[in-house]
Amino acid sequence: MSSRDQMDEKLERLVGQALRAQPPRRAPASLEGRVLREIAARARLPWWRRAMASWPLAVRIPVITACAICVPLVWIGSVWLAAHLVSVGTQPGIAGPLAAVRDVGQTIVSLGTVTGQVLHDIPRDWLVGGLIATATLYAALFALVALGYSLLYPRTDYSKARLT
Amino acid sequence: MRAYQDMVFSTAVRLTGNPAQAEDISQEVFLRAYESFENLRSSPKAGGWLKTVATNLTLNHLTRHRKRWRLFSEVFSDDTREEELESAAAVFDTVVTELETDERCAIIEQTLERLPDHQRIPLVLYHYEEMPYQDIANRLGISLAKVKTDILRGRVAMAALLAPSGVGAPDDRRRSPSATRGAPL
Lengths: 164, 185
What we know:
The structure holds two protein chains of two kinds. By secondary structure, chain A is mainly α. In chain A, 74% of the residues lie in helices and 0% in strands.
């Protein structure tokens, strides 16, 4: 080890010694009051203005259910709307200005038809098997990445750190 | 909260070097703790949890300004001379062995606040948070070599800031801690 490296190590040791001997900085006297005031202000908010995780269960369940219902409804509505746009677009008076809309509608209808036909033709067992295989592969890949990350970048356990 | 507020504030203020920002961050830490109060109330790891959240929130806050200091310090080379290291070690030797506790604490905290972000943040993470070089590099999104260089330069810069205050000098040259304000880095 060169004398420069030795001096580097000595400096590191002395700086570490000086810094770790420092007591914690005293928090401002105003901090506690600020936190309590903010907690009180948040508690006064009506439930619908807070995070969804803190909403009453009786509200959360219907909202989540409604969202889940909305997804297929939006899909069905889009297909229905596209089909109507196609029929409207074919009328002579408005065919010109709505030609682009009609093309988009026809594309969506075609995609919906093809998707429906493909799903209909695939045996149900294959679909279920495919979904299970996809979920298993995704979980395995996720676990592999998590394992690799934790091995490559071990996390510091701050619970054992000094509370300075 | 009273048991941990100094620890949380210390973590934030040493990383930011700014007491006002540190107070804002500390407030946010305790608000998050309040949201998780049921889990933390009886947990022996509450202190560690608070320290981790304080560190992460502070680093997130600092990341918003990170581009500024990363740009200026990404071009680097470790050109610190052995004499500089020796001189810096002598200053810290004096700090550790000769100064009274109160005076030492005040001078070191003031000196730390005056370091530029790109030196203070890795220095604090290394010496106070006891993070390895590689973890610091990953967390800050900079190279390992840069972390090492910045920490080394931070130590030398601290010594250079401490020296004008009379640390390591004869008693008649010693000035008050406030005299370090405005000293060149």
